[in-house]
Amino acid sequence: MKPRSLPPLNNATLFPALTIVVGIPSSGRREIVSAVIPDLARQNRKPDQLLICAPASDDVDMAALANLPFPVQFIKSEPGLCRQRNAIIDAVPNADIILFLDDDFLLAPTYIAELERLFLRNPDVDVTTGTVLADGATGPGIPVDEGLALLRDAHTPAENLSIRETYSGYGCNMAVRMSTVHICRLRFDEKLPFYGWLEDVDFSRVVSRFGRVVVSPHLLGVHLGTKTGRMSGLRLGYSQIANPIYLVGKRSMTWRHALTQMTRNLASNAIRVWRPEPWVDRLGRLTGNLLAISDFLRGRLSPQNIQGID
Question: Where is the signal peptide (predicted)?
């Protein structure tokens, strides 16, 4: 299908507005939440509501968010990325769009305005993800000030750049059309516990059966990749093998994609375990990889097994 170009931003006024909710799951990252989320006030088009979902009220300093120019609500959920995202979905049944963000993702000021325009002009799009200018998840992480500077220095994309099909949204910034979610009774798979490794791929591939999944060059952001509150290396390593195989069984991932994903992670962990990055537990990840392979060979493999290891 030929990609569609977006019209100029001021043409968005020709269409009725959408109700756009920003949903942020978090856990044990109180300081980064307080540092990053107030930046949403810079959006040219403010969200209609912000929901922060965490296992404990102490995870969020609501006083630090009290003066934001839109409603902010805290909701409590059992820990687990998929559970928390589902709790956000259940809390706003009348939202048109939910923009799921990681608690360490910074948006360009035009992000939500461009997001609204995209969904209004493309009724067949059900999931969209943005263009990440820098991703601290692949390195030591990016300080907040540096992330903000990267956004200030970013060039405005040309108007003739088009959205394009993508295999999956990126969970750190992934917007979902809620009418499809409700009609098709879609949810994030809670059998992917804790950090929910590849939950964004699973959800995107299920949604792709009903509508388009796209990436937009006009939705700009920076993923800080803050290292606090992350899953242990052992659990993550187990998930790097168990979750792709589970998704193959669900038919939300092909064997080709799963084998590529697993081989890349296993090779990276095996090679770098001898000189690991200071911010990565390579030995834990490799041990988790091997434990999952052992469970697979014995017919005991399941993503939920990580709940019994640490």
Answer: none
